[in-house]
Amino acid sequence: MQLEGVVRKIRRRALEELRAHGSFAAWREKDFLHGEEVNAGVIVLSTRGCAWALRAGCTMCGYIYDSSRSVSQAEVLQQFKEGVAKIGDVAYLKVFNSGSFFDSGEIARETRQEIYRLVNSLGVKRLQVETRPEYITREVLEEAISVLEPELEVGIGLETTNDYIREVCINKGFTLAEFTRALNACKSTGAKVKAYLLIKPPFITEAEAIEDAVRSGIEASRMGVERLSFNPVNVQRGTLVEELFYKREYRPPWLWSVVEVIKRVKERVSIPVVCSPSGAGTKRGAHNCGKCDSRVLAAIRRFSSTQELRYIEELTCTCKQRWKEELNLEVFER
Ligand code: SF4
Ligand SMILES: [Zn+2]
Predict the structure, then answer these.
(1) In angstroms, what is the span from residue 326 Cα to ligand 2's centroid?
(2) Domain interval for residue 97
(3) Predicted confidence (pLDDT) per residue in 232-241, tens digit
């Protein structure tokens, strides 16, 4: 069976079992903007979910199970307002919907317009949204930019610049050429692009994953993205990655691999490189030996919000040697 067929089968079964009711989330965090550490706010809207995930979706993504079949546009707007009230004053506002902000099936044009107007009243410097490239058109970008007072940043889950890995390991459903078209549309309207890059998709080794992520970061920077965000895979429920994990055929990346990637990329590019690993320090997330995880994770976070390499350069633990040996032997931890 083709990868898409396998993913679709897992998705259909899990959608029946797992999808309950949507819930939104909002929190404050630190980030790096315009050369300094700033307060940022994240609002995760629960919509009807990513259209690609409803069809089959990406091999590592289980966000669709947090969506809701029946959410109305009035409820989406209400979630946004509640999120704003919860996070308070921030310079950098990120509005995520675990899908595509510019997909009118998830967030209608009128809802988007109302969100832009509300954002203007908050005094933020930058609004970030996220979307698959096929929803990026000059029209939706101009609609946003003509209303918005703060800068617009569009996050796109490019995952890798390697089309083979994106198709065969991730089942992402778009090519680098499609990403490039979307990137150029953003550039021509003045919107910034943040590329999300995956660390360790399934079916490749840890060493290959490091090389893929480093190469992708450098290439995406050369292509003109304005920010890189590295996402180490975490094992989400109802995904192909979870099935491999249960069969002991997948281990999330070491935090040492994450440090290696962001360090090597930051040394080669002049744009911000950030990383906020979900589920890190647990068996399902990027992890080390258990003793050093929280220290290494805190250092990655400090690096991300300051861009100062000193936070991740001197890290050490006895497990680092084991990580190096495993890289050489290409052995998965069972
Ligand atoms: S990673 Fe993005 S595009 Fe892929 S299924 Fe999840 S939300 Fe959709
Ligand atoms: Zn350790």
Answers:
(1) 14
(2) 3-329
(3) 999 999 999 9
In a domain, residue 111? The reply is yes
CATH code, 292: 3.20.20.70
Q: What is the mean pLDDT of the chain?
A: 94
Predicted TM-score of the model (pTM): 0.95
Euclidean distance between CA atoms 213 and 217, whole angstroms: 6
Whether 54 is in the pocket of ligand 1, judged by its Cβ within 6 Å, is no
CA distance 183 to 304: 23
Structural domain total, the chain: 1
Give the ligand 1 atom nearest the CA of 159: 1
Q: Which ligand 1 atom sits nearest the alpha carbon of residue 157?
A: 2
Q: Which two tokens stand for residue 4?
A: 């898409």
Q: Is residue 187 part of a domain?
A: yes
Q: Indicate whether residue 60 lines ligand 1 (CB < 6 A).
A: no
Amino acid at residue number 310: R
Which regions in the chain score pLDDT beneath 70? 1, 17-23, 331-334
Q: Is 135 in the pocket of ligand 1 (CB under 6 A)?
A: no
Which of 3, 47, 63 has most ligand 1 atoms within 8 Å of its beta carbon, as the pocket-test mutant? 63
| Residue 144 domain-assigned (yes or no) | yes
pLDDT in the model for residue 69:
74
In-domain check, residue 161? yes
- pLDDT tens-place string over residues 294-310: 999 999 999 999 999 99
User: Exposed, middle or buried by CB within 10 Å (0-12, 13-18, 19+), for 31?
Assistant: buried
